Amino acid sequence: MLPLSVLSSPTLSAASRLSDGSRHSDSGQPFPRTRSQSDFEIERPTKIASGISKRPSARRLQSDYAAEHALRASVSRLIAAKARPFTISGRIPLDPTALVLFFRSKSGITHSLDFPIDVDYDTPPALDVLIAACRPHQTAGINVYPDRDSLFYPPNLPLTATLEISNHPILEAVRNALFPNLPVGHYLITVRDRLEVMVGGCHMSPQSRTLRNDGRVATIVVTLPVHHRGGALIVRDSEGTEEKFFGGGGKAEEVEWTAFLAECEYEVETVQQGCRMSISFAVHLKTYGPAVDPLITPSENFLDLLSPVLSLSRGRKVAFYLTQEYGVNPADVLAESLVPHLKGSDSLLYHALKLYKLAPELHWAAGGYIWPIDRTVECGHDAADSPTTAAMMSFAAGYSSPSRRSVPMRPMSYYGEPEEDEAEIQRVEADLMRLRVEESGAVPLADAEIFILSDWAPGPMTKEKVYFSSNGELEKLVVNVLLVTYVP
User: Fold this and answer.
1) Alpha-carbon dihedral of residues 72, 75, 76, 82, nearest 10 degrees?
2) What whole-number distance in Å separates Cα of residue 369 and Cα of residue 3?
3) What's the predicted TM-score (pTM) here?
4) Which domains does the chain have, with CATH numbers?
5) Spans of biased composition, class Basic and acidic residues (predicted)?
6) Of the chain's two ends, which shows fewer C-beta atoms within 10 Å, N or C?
């Protein structure tokens, strides 16, 4: 049975409404009721004593239009490069001595190559065997000096390295920098492409993107810790913009890597000294069905703990507070839009309810009020003729809202106690905030007949902020997220 909306839920008996917050119930309910937050949590800016502001100098220097034009042109190029990056680079914190390369030569003998390597000091015999097994790149073409072509290890021969991309957050960096708008439910995976070798005096001709037609979306090149001089990596996008990355085999405790989009071509300048070795990985985009389909399955123990809670809640609409932070503005997005982004314990609980064939919903909630599933949190702003502003400015004896409710206020005396006056101001502000919330479409949790399921001692809750103006100051209303479901 689909859950009913908070505005159209069936009317329950008086005993099924929210209790007054006592731990133990005398009405024979199967579990005690807990009271939700009845006070609004508002964050106010810290007031800073106003000082004498410095007046700007009346004298203005004569503008240097040439310098200003050059500055604006430089800023324009910077913003254009920032708007769509096509390559990034970084370093892997890895001890080079822990890196080993295993390969099989043409004769069928397996060799191992330990790192780091400095061919000017000592050339390992396995490196000579590896170079002898390599073949020149396809783009080398007819060359007067064939011994200066770049080489790659044949893909039909076994090759294994102890370096695993999945053990380092490289894919996360690639996703954040090159694919920031990747839809939820899509993931990046890597497949080892090839091992490339360039000895002293060799270079790599431009590798066109047409040579990599395996459906990849990006390429990652990891430079192995082999000392060399020269051999800068040049990456060029489809518009001809290029980036150059210099490296000398990496520093101690670090391995260099570079990633670029599939539409780019790359080349390597001439290696002046030493030997340059790198392993490239193809980055592919995969999806695992709809965005709301989980990749996790709650454990049997967790489902066993949830089962009695649902059994004792039959015929009721129950709710749990989410606990993770999502960094969204409840005034701009619906709470239901967080479903594909649920994480941690929130995702575990949501998908556990789905396994019980329930239809959980996400709602915004604050101060004992809950917003409908199709409403955002709109607190409004003070205007010169708004009733809330008039009430606070005049501090009159009453306040009239569109719902004809009033906010009674005790007359304040100049000789009154400061503590009493401050308490009266806080009470009036809370009443005015309550009126704003009700005008935005929120209803009390008691009227929505929703039971809040929580521990004896309330734990952490999701806290998102909504900005609003009050008395000329910018304040923030703290909003929580409720996971609501009807248990038939």
Assistant:
1) -170
2) 19
3) 0.59
4) 14-44+291-487 (no CATH), 88-287 (2.60.120)
5) 36-45
6) N
